[in-house]
Write a structure and sequence with these properties.
The chain is mainly β. It has helices at about 345-350, 415-420; strands at about 40-45, 50-55, 65-75, 75-85, 95-100, 110-115, 115-125, 125-130, 140, 150-155, 160-170, 170-180, 190, 200-205, 220-225, 230-235, 240-245, 250-260, 260-270, 275-280, 285-290, 295-300, 305, 310-320, 330-340, 370, 375, 380-390, 405-415. It has 2 helices and 29 strands. InterPro entries: Sialidase_sf (IPR036278).
Amino acid sequence: MIRRGLLLPMVLICLIAPAATTAQTPTTTASVAAWAFDTPRTLGRDSGVIRGLATALDDHGYAHTSYLRASEFMAEASHSALIVQGVTHAGDRYERRLWQGEPSAGPTAITARSGRIIVAATLDGQVRLWESRDSGVTWGEVESPIPASVAQLAILPDGRAVLALLTRTGMQFTLTIATETSAGSGTWLLANPLPSSASTVLTVWQRDDVRTDQAGLPQLVIAQGRAGGVQLVITQNGTTWQPQTIASTTPHALALSAVGGRLVVVHEQYGERVLWLASSTVREDWQVTRLSTPSSVIVEANPLLHDPQTNTVMLLTTCRFPDRLFGSYRAQLCLSRVGADDLHTAGAWESQWAEPWTPIAMAQPHTAQAGAVVVTHGMQAHVAWVGQFIPSDFLHINATQAGFVTTSEAMATTGRIPALARLDAP
């Protein structure tokens, strides 16, 4: 389908399009087809909601995804399920329902390496864990080393699992890092290297050993939000942890990535249209930059993508366009790019966000869209997101539907980082 005022490349899925508008019409370039080698595809669809999407790439570059889905009517969810899906080492796709029960709004987390996959989900306020040791063919639930309310995961190159767990005491959350004593042993070495914090914002970054430009960075970094910034710990071996702090503002979400030999933290400022970007070699002080975004950009903390061949840094985010009556929007993924030398030049980023917004179209628009989940392996970027089709067009409300049922759709695509960096400027 071709929408008036918008030409999408044929590699993208056609739009489900209501009435067209010329306001803030996105532009594309012919070279967009050069990187979209994996056409966006549906991971899962539900006549309800999909939440807590998480994705990991294993050492073969295969994607494994976990999420919670539930039926929904008039904003009331029921009949939840925890889903995990991906590709085995044999190249076969799998999908498993690990749990089902009453609704839970908690997040999920996933990690994968050498045929071992671990999934965590917060259900009824408690972290529960599942594991596969045959690249997703069979699954079993495993016991968490301590009771916790939030989890993030990693698997070290020697096969040991690392769990970053937040335990609540009153209004404070304490980070406990549990590292396996040996691969698959199920026995854990516990550490509490950071002071407690009121923030449940937690993320993990692991060095990509395929990327030689990351060789000088730590093996693993775990970051937690705190009042007025970010606190983090770094390790080379999973047992000795070095704490650091970043002074910025209290984060709403966190993303960790690397640009060459620098670790980069991107986080949102809650309630403001602001992103904060901090970078360091972790052996020096953190350089911090504040980035303001316009109303057409949905402020998100996403990891940066770096192409060392062109020394280009890229950010995937979500942008929105007025497309319906009564203030409704459609949303899609968009791409921003600056030279690595301009990483901390606020104007270099902000000049690309000047309205009218002109993105590189990456996916089919939805009525509403949750933020993208971006993971990388070598020169490959895997992007997953949740789109929603909300029947909120008042012209179509009737007594039976009443516009209260939401349909969610988990989507994914894969792109080559060097090809993204070489796109013609929008």
